[in-house]
Amino acid sequence: MIALTHFADSSADFADRARAALAALAARPGYLRGTLARSTDDPAAWLLLTEWENVGSYRRALGGYDVKLTATPLLASAVPDLPAGFESLADIAPGGVTVLHRSDREPRPS
To answer: I want to staple 2 with a disulfide (CB 3.0 to 4.6 A). Which of 10, 38, 69, 86 is the partner?
Structure first.
């Protein structure tokens, strides 16, 4: 599961707050990786990308004490009304090795 959160913030301390939030999320079970990125075209446009084992681990992470203290205030300032949760359907590694993932929306065989 990939969580993608957009921010529009030009404050001088945004990067520090976002790194602290990412560190709190990274300490939670099910966290796989994360990235804080800034737009090359707009210095106030930021992106926080995290990848999780599954949607449940992401949702449980949001309930962690350190996450509530550090990440929740930051996440509350995200750009509203943009999709944030995505399921990974295909990964392609350098060299072209492709790994396909089953969608959680597909019916399970009986």
So the answer is: 86
